Amino acid sequence: MPTKNKVLYTLLLLSFVLSIIFVQNNYSLYEKPIAKVMKTNIEEVTAVKDANNEDRIHVQNIVAELQNGSDKGKKIYLINEYSDSKALDNKLHAGYDLFVSLHDNHNGKLTGTILDVKRDKYLLMIAWVFIIVLLLIGKKQGLLSIISLIVNAFLLSDALDLYINNSTLSLVWICVFSVILFTIVTLLLVNGFNEKTYAAIIATLLGTFSSLLITYLVLFITGEKGLRYEELQFITRPYKMVFMAGLFIGSLGAVMDVAITMSSTVFGLYDKNNHIPIKALIKSGMEVGRDIMGTMTNILFFAYVSGSIPLLILYFKNGSPFGYTLSLNLSLEIARALAGGIGIVLTIPIGLYTTIFFVNRKRKSL
Prior knowledge:
366 residues, alpha+beta, five-stranded antiparallel β-sheet, 5 strands, 64% helix, globular
């Protein structure tokens, strides 16, 4: 094994071990009190029933030990209620870390209320599985993908902070600039500075903006009939603008994937045969575009709709009418999927002819 790889794997293993140790002992970094569950027992079980559902409510007595704050090391007595369905709660076991609020001592005992479960160690394990799989399969490209993902996460966080702290700014325009940055950062980091990347950047931006423009025109012409904004009405900002911004960001990933696929395909054919006719490149590119068109649109549909499955089950189980349930829970998701699908379809010819332009430039420079 090359020395460079040994160093990389050693650093990766060291980072893994140190992160696990850190997350298991980072209680002092949290302001909220954290208690580790020592033992539990079920005090009471009550059956509940309505017209369509049956469930049981369990009352769980918990003894835990505080892990931070001025009361660190003290025992705290908690009560947890959970149902068999576990729709809004969880059964707790020894070893769980809990965020709690402290009450005054009651008969010499420190009591409190459970706020939430501390889940950072579970999230860390999932993150490491993702990182390891990406590095094993993608090697250098996998590492660059992780870096671009981290950078984009910070950019998105900063964009949202900017909007939250400046209510006069338009979220859509913030997302426009964010999309440009996301596209440039991701494609340049993952694919480098070359004609293939430049073609993919241009195709991604043209495809994404064209999708947003067409979606906006359709919504304007139809008066947004059929869209149910109930799930967004808790927002204190204009929810229609928030919907458009989310739609804009949501379609970017699929459009970017199509753009780089078209660019890589055409340049791959050209690199193998510098004298290949333009007509052959166009024909091969369109065949690839047609092949990925159906799968990418289905990916978008399933990705958006899957998040509504729990609500669909809840509505159907409570006897809600089929049409009303789908309209209430899926109208926005289907609109997002359709907008992304438009972007995918438009990006295929845009990506193809943009790449052909760069191929012709490269051919003339030879």
